[in-house]
């Protein structure tokens, strides 16, 4: 997943967050040390959960008139 809308990020399962971490870090040429990988994946999962809470607090992002913005971390 490179880009996509915010809902694509919000719909990632924990397992897919870890897979996203691997693919995205490879795309960017970043090497995530093995002893840090679990923590980075956990932080991405927390970010996903915080994003969902924020969007819910705003009443959701379902405004059809608003252009969809791609998610690019």
Question: What does this entry show, briefly?
Answer:
The chain is mainly alpha-helical and 73 residues long. It has 3 helices and no strands.
Overview of the structural elements:
The chain has 73 residues and is mainly alpha-helical. It is 60% helix and 0% strand. It contains three helices and no strands. Helix 2 (14-28) crosses helix 3 (34-57). The radius of gyration is 13 Å and the shape is globular. The relative contact order is 0.22.
Please, what is the average pLDDT?
79
Order of helices and strands: HHH
Describe the global form: globular
Low-confidence stretches: none
Assign the structural class, choosing from mainly alpha, mainly beta, alpha/beta, alpha+beta, or little secondary structure: mainly alpha
Query: Could you give the distance between the termini?
Result: 11 Å
Rounded radius of gyration (Å):
13 Å
- The fraction of residues in strands falls at under 5%
Q: Considering DSSP H and I runs of 4 or more, what fraction of the residues is helical?
A: 55-70%
Number of strands: 0
**Mind describing the biggest β-sheet?**
none
Number of helices: 3
């Amino acid at each position: 997943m490179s880009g996509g809308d915010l809902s694509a990020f919000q719909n990632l399962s924990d397992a897919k967050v870890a897979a996203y971490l691997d693919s995205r870090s490879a795309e960017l040429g970043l090497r995530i040390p093995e002893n840090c990988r679990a923590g980075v994946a956990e932080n991405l999962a927390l970010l996903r959960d915080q994003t969902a809470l924020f969007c819910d607090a705003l009443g959701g992002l379902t405004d059809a008139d608003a252009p969809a913005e791609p998610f690019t971390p």
